Protein: Cytosolic carboxypeptidase 1
Amino acid sequence: MQNYDSAVTEAVPHTHTHTHTHTHTHTHTHTHTHLCWPNALYCLCYLMYGLVSEKTRKEVTSKGSGGMEVILSSLENAQDLQTTLNILAILNELICVCLGGGRRTGVFVSKGGTAILLQMLVSSSKNPPANEELMLHIHTLLVKVGPKDRKFGVKSRLNGALNVTLNLVKHNLQNHKLLLPCLQVLRVYSSNLVNAVSLGKSGALEIMFEIIGPFSKKSTTLMKYVVLTSITAVLCVCSSGMNARRAVDRGYLPTLLSIYQDWHRHDTRHRHVVIRKSILACIKNLTNIKLGRKAFIDANGMRILYNTSTECLAVRTLDPLVNTSSLIMRKCFPKNRLPLPTIKSVFHHPLPHIAAGGPVAQLYNQPPGVDDVVDESDENEATEVDTENETEYEDDETGHKTQLHRPIIIPTTPSSLGAQNRRPLREDLLTPKPDESPLELDSISISKRPEGTADHDLVCSLGRLVVDAGVNGGSVDGLQDEGGEQAVLEVPDTAALLPLHDPDLYLEMVKSTRSVPAYTEVAYPDYFGHVALNLREPILERVYGVQRTKIFQDIERLIHSSDILDKVVYDLDNQRSVFIDNGESLKFNSKFESGNLRKAIQVRKFEYDLILNSDINSNHYHQWFYFEVSNMRPGVRYRFNIINCEKSNSQFNYGMQVLMYSVQDAINGSPHWVRTGSDICYYKNHFSRSSIAAGGQKGKSYFTLTFTVTFQHKDDVCYFAYHYPYTYSMLKMHLQKLSALRTAQIYYRQDDLCETLGGNSCPLLTITAMPESSSNDHISQFRSRPVVFLSARVHPGETNSSWVMKGTLEFLMSCSPQAQSLRESYIFKIIPMLNPDGVINGNHRCSLSGEDLNRQWQSPNAELHPTIYHAKSLLQYLRATGRTPLVFCDYHGHSRKKNVFMYGCSIKETVWQTNANTSTCDLQEDLGYRTLPKLLSQMAPVFSLSSCSFVVERSKEATARVVVWREIGVQRSYTMESTLCGCDQGKYKGLQIGTSELEEMGAQFCLALLRLRRYTSPLELQNHNSHLLDTENDLIDTRGIPNITSPTTYVLEEDEPAFLEEVDYSAESNDENDPDLEPDLQDNLALLDPSSDSEFSRQDSVN
Structure:
């Protein structure tokens, strides 16, 4: 090292300092520089030779060596060109990136090397002509230094270097050796937005587009590098919107498209993919502005990129080109509005009053046209077309009825009564709409299917189940086909498989169900019932490139618009219209309980766009779907696109399939909802969302869920659903069947918590064990049982929560010893469906008030949110009487995560996770809230402890879980989330979840409560206290480890990584005496039961 230090020192011009002191106490210092150039040249050559060694490079730039300062000082003071070139060569060698010069470049920047180079560049340009070799060395160094200097852009601009480099480019267009580093430096300059704008004004774009040209076989490797660098420089310069507009105004976008086509055409061996991708990146930058997108469309860019991309699909290594092309085309695809007259729900329900600041007031107080998704002219056109269709097809509407879709009327009065003489049980319930006029038949017989019979065309003579409620009720007694002959509706014998399902009872339940559209039809799956499959359904493996293929098919609609049928085949907004039936189109229907499909448009022969209805009194929440399809061909691949989904990602991208129910299969003995569909993906589309529906955010788009289905049977009737349907009428049927399971040991009571906005009752269940006798000891034991409060289905689209609740209820009503022990341990208060109206009317999230009921728990309104108001009142009464529930759990479903997990509440973990100033060590908190999730993780195979979270987020403060924890004082207050997809852990890893697994989870929850009782019982705590502490310690043993997946961490919105596109997850009683109770216990139990009349009479005062 000493040799190289001395060599460097000798290479530096010698400096002598003389100090003269005068009598006036002034000190003058004179510096004289004596250059020893022959010696300096020798030492520089010696130093260059020594820098071949990596060890020497490290020593020169090591801390405290002073080597870099000496070299920079030599460069700054050198007056000989050759010496300057030698020093620049030394620096180039020293900070060579390929030799690990990254750190040494940082040393160079920290010692002021950047400013020295820029000053040398500017000063050298003042004496033209500039030395080419000097310019080459300086720019080569600047290319290496620029990215490492965070202030490079500012330094280059302040030193006046921008125009120097730009002029060098301008005058050396054919000198590729010098041109290349100059373009590279321009690219670094342009990373600073101010510099990019300045270069654009100085004509940088025009100069660089002189360099960029079509493919040439004569191009050398250096020339291709120059082209590539020039393209990337354009890319950087056009990062400025002003420069992008300048480039578009000068017509450079069509030029880039032409150049890209040329390179694509000639690069048959794919050796220049980087150049092709860079050209696409420039196009992508220019299309970031509206003017650029218009220029792209005008230049036929969609067709050009579509054609080039389809030619690249077969070569996997060209995926970057295809992906970038796809992004450009999707960005430039003209934004369309949904083909609807308004995005508000088709159905409207008047409210008792509308809160001034609520979502309904905002929705209906908008100026005319603000909420509409088409402009006024489109509305007028649609009206004219509708009128024309009504006139043209009037004869078809009155005279032509297809056999498949003739409704099956299930009258409840003698058939001799005409439709005009029958009065409905309720004015707004189960009454055929005036425009529907279902055909009445004289004789109907419903029978069990005889063994060994097969009639594959039977469904053709069926149609829909239509319920008609008469004055006196009645039974099902008539079915007839079009010709008047008696037909047979063969009901699969599911009684043995489904002990809680009874088709006749279901129809009776439907008659008392009130819906806003006044549904008169019954879906076959709800009537026949569903039997869980014995086989497991694996999570669907995503086929590579399926999303890209679907997007390209969507782009084809614009390119080959003449191939698009655009034929409306189903429309709730125009129910009086008759659609042309040529036998080639599928037929759709959603006019039954929980149904949701607003519009179906046939876009190709076997492809349909589907639009979902908004929640009633709302203009969004498009997620839940449930509809019927018929008139299909077997063996044909049909593609369905639900085009107005709102969530930014979905488990449909990660293996989840839609549910399908085949009536033909049900009749043949397989009444199953099955996972179905291939080529499933979920992606952003070109339909723009109203800013009103998007919460005031502009520029938002809808998402498409697309899936392909091949039907197995001819003339089948199939149903599709987002998840396993569970209707309100099904709940009522199940509750009635459950009550029949009551034994002398079971106390089971059903009350009406309240009446909903839609006029439906909200059931409240009380389940516990009967006291052994009426003795004071047994009554006291009965009264001392802790309360467990359970609820479900506050969000109608989360049907899985109802299946979990079904499992819980079946376990509680079973005769097993564990169930009896559980009943003896607790009094269960259960509200199995908090939002009956939303479930009935096919909503996804809201009630008829147009609001998310799980955000109303802080201040529920008795008129607008009656179920929440009375549920909270009951909880408040329990607290006031010293019966605060031990556990509160609200069952939910999660659309973007796998497994089952819980959200709980913890002050300490909330403070810890939110990085609040308060030290968690100062907070004392009982850790009992973690015990139940821990028990579930040990017992339930679908439960994931790692997905649990106990952080209370501000956005969830009005939810049931948080309000019950904070206001009612329930420490163990939870939301239990069940996946809509499947599991990625445990026994069911890699499988989609089914109703059997969901019901099993409900039963396992009960078993976990039984074990929890051991830990919370005062008598048991003395014996099991140490074990409880061990359990809680197990839960927190990972708490000190950062960045872990544990029950104490935040839960992300989804398990899966994000996709390339932005593919952005809360009273009254009809009390009757129990006939199974001994008479002397009746009065005592009425007083003990929290939902009795005597208690409810006081609950309003508590609220």
Q: What stands out?
A: The chain has a mean pLDDT of 79.
